[in-house]
Amino acid sequence: MAQSQQEKLERRRGKDRGVAKSARTGVVPEDILELRYVGRPHLSPDGRRVVFSRRHVGEKNEYVSDLWIADVGGLAGPRPFTNGGRDSQPRFSPDGRRVAFVRAREKEKPQLWEMAVDGGEARALTSFPEGSIRDFAWSPDGRHLVVSFREQDGAWTEQARKAREEKGLSEPPRVIDDWWYRLDGDGYFNAERHRLWLVDAERGERRLLYGADTLGHFSYAFSPDSERLAITTNRDPKALIKPWRDELLVLEIESRGLQPVSLPEGRKAQVAWSPDGRWLAYAGRTDGPDGAYDTENLELLVCDPRHGEVRSLTAATDYCLAAATLTDTAEVDFNPKFEWAPDSKSLLVRIGWHGETHAARVELAGGRVVFLTRGEADHDLGNVSRDGRRIALVRSTATRPPEIFVGELSARGARLKPVTDFNGPWVARRAIAPIQSHWITSADGARV
Q1: Could you give the CA distance from residue 301 to residue 161 in angstroms, rounded to a whole number?
Q2: Per-residue pLDDT at 409 exceeds 90
Q3: Residues paired with 340 in a beta bridge
Q4: Of 47, 186, 247, 329, which has the fewest CB atoms closer than 10 Å, so is most exposed?
Q5: Max alpha carbon distance in the chain (Å)?
Q6: Residue 282: how many CB atoms within 10 A of its CB?
């Protein structure tokens, strides 16, 4: 099999650094201390800068996570942006002047913080009680943020633990009356659920917007005028075994009024509002009852939020928006990823295909799918610049840990440019065997 461009690039980098092939060593467990893990890239609205998270194993045998920033044009290489040690999920404000992010300086009390792009002191925006922040988003006018926050069960807060210690009491039993009470990487949350809060971007004041989701797995998107939110949610008491009862709601932010969009039964996830305000896109199915891990493809659907008229843009293909690539060196995200192009005529979508993950453009008019990235690699989407000319992403291969890239978009594809090379020196010193693909023709003639 012919060498991939990435493999050729890696060999060339090794030669450029003067590392002889005979001097390279195999991978050993201690290498985990050298690797740098990057993720969550976010382009500034003008596309000139990209901010991202970078993790490494610290001296106390735990991950240290900070934010880094880089000029896309190459005038300034990657440089530290924060040093909180537990910073993640950076997001530029709509005017590009600030970056909001999650800081978990107190492990049990993560908060939203913000910092000016040109530097200065970071300041806390929120004062949530002990709990968990899943994600957040800026409103298009920059006046507010919405935050998915789940409060800690009162019996299991740090304050309750200390009170028990002072009284010499043991831990109480967990009384579980719901089958959704814990998750790998999340621990026990018992009956608590993520709820949606509106936060004032200047004063930090917050108010509850929505908290009726049975599992706390809702997604949301602002309307272009910042006055409404589209929400995919499941309010059924048995949502875990009835995922087809998902709904698409439109919430009026000022009044908190909810208006369901009339759609067929089926899975609904990861909603996105078109910039012209005419369409809602979401990943889902329209064939009624199915399981959470059904083998049917999760399609890219668009609907009119006023009338509910829905159509699939990918029904004629075999692409599934839930297909994801798993790796030990990158953040795992099973949620579908897509974003509208600024002209509302197409969407940029992450598509898993034959063990690779690519960025693709799907046209609104006819559903034509154009792959923007190529190669035996995982391309994890970030966001697109306001003019639609640049896209941020994380690229990795089976022999190359993730790095941040920016793609210059055109009608034919994306010309990728590396922004970071944190793991380049490590790769150059390691003897890593190239991978090969093997195809098998099954009895019915299908190639696997």
Answers
A1: 47
A2: yes
A3: 347
A4: 186
A5: 70
A6: 28
